Amino acid sequence: MVKAKKMKRILVTGAVGQIGSELTLELRKRYGAENVVATGRKTKPSDELKSSGPFYFIDVTRRETVEEVVNKHQIDTIYHMAAILSVVGEEKPQLCWNVNMNGLYSILELARELDMTRVIIPSSIAVFGPETPRDNTPNETILKPRTMYGVTKVAGELLCDYYFHRFGLDVRGLRYPGIVSHETLPGGGTTDYAVAIYYEAIKAKRYTCFVRADTRLPMMYMPDCIKSTIDLAEADLSQLKHHSDFNVGAMSFSAGELAESIKKYVPEFECTFEPDHRQKIADSWPSSLDDSAAREEWGWKPAYDLDAMTRDMLEALAKKHREGRL
Ligand code: AKB
Prior knowledge:
By secondary structure, the chain is α/β, with parallel strands linked by helices. Helix content is 43%, strand content 15%. It has twelve helices and 14 strands. It has helices spanning 18-31, 47-51, 63-73, 86-91, 93-113, 148-167, 193-203, 222-234, 255-263, 278-283, 292-298, 306-322; strands at 10-13, 36-40, 55-57, 77-80, 118-120, 123-124, 171-172, 174-176, 178-180, 206-209, 216-221, 246-247, 251-254, 270-273. A six-stranded parallel β-sheet has the order 3-2-1-4-5-7, with helices on both faces. A three-stranded parallel β-sheet has the order 6-8-12. A three-stranded mixed β-sheet has the order 9-11-13. Helix 1 packs across helix 8, helix 7 runs parallel beside helix 9 (255-263) and helix 7 packs across helix 12. The longest helix has 21 residues, at 93-113. The model has no long low-confidence stretch (mean pLDDT 97). 2-amino-3-ketobutyric acid binds next to loops.
């Protein structure tokens, strides 16, 4: 039986990314700034990320760069957020495999060798494919993705579960839907339109969306994303039947409905739809998720629906725009 231990010193990889940047700040609030070490590969961290606690540049595909920071700060928990997303993964499949698989393998091996307390490794709705039932997609279902990103996420889930069962490493992960936020832009994903549309609604009052209006995907607002990640990390291990592959749902809307929800608050906003190569990826993903396993095993419950998210996003971005920060 794997024994639950206490998380004390945390390393976040991909801390400059869309989720990692906000996750790091929340973890620093909870566990103390000095106990949460942020790392990125190349992108300059924001002033807040850099000044609020330790920050290092590492490359997850070069294990020695990770190991150095892990040893220096006696890390016992890793949130491994660094990954290449779906669109860039299709442009550069070899890079996607290298970062997502070899990077993951290094993290898992390091955690195993050092007998770490916990590793949190996000997965994605990209594990599903065209043969998967699209509506209310179950946790256990057909996993035959058509993108390299999806392939690495399926293989990653299996590898993480293997480390749990074979080595007793407490690895946990959730399948993120598209994540919408106003602090850090996402990079290279298929669901990026659901973020860009808000920025353009405030800046230009118009947006050309790269998927069809009827494209319906599962989405989640950042506060729920951070909550789901930390709630799963802190869940009672004895209650978990799944480990690395929890569906987490929050809302599901079409790109057309998203544009309409913005129009309620920005009536002059105009959205046109010009699907490109990303449409095919979106069409291979579910429209909504059955997340009953997450609800039953660790009490998952989202707070934001589309309208609440739209209000919050527009308010935050309008403020940034007024202050010249957009
Ligand atoms: C992407 O679009 O690639 C990501 C994801 C759903 O994992 N946002």
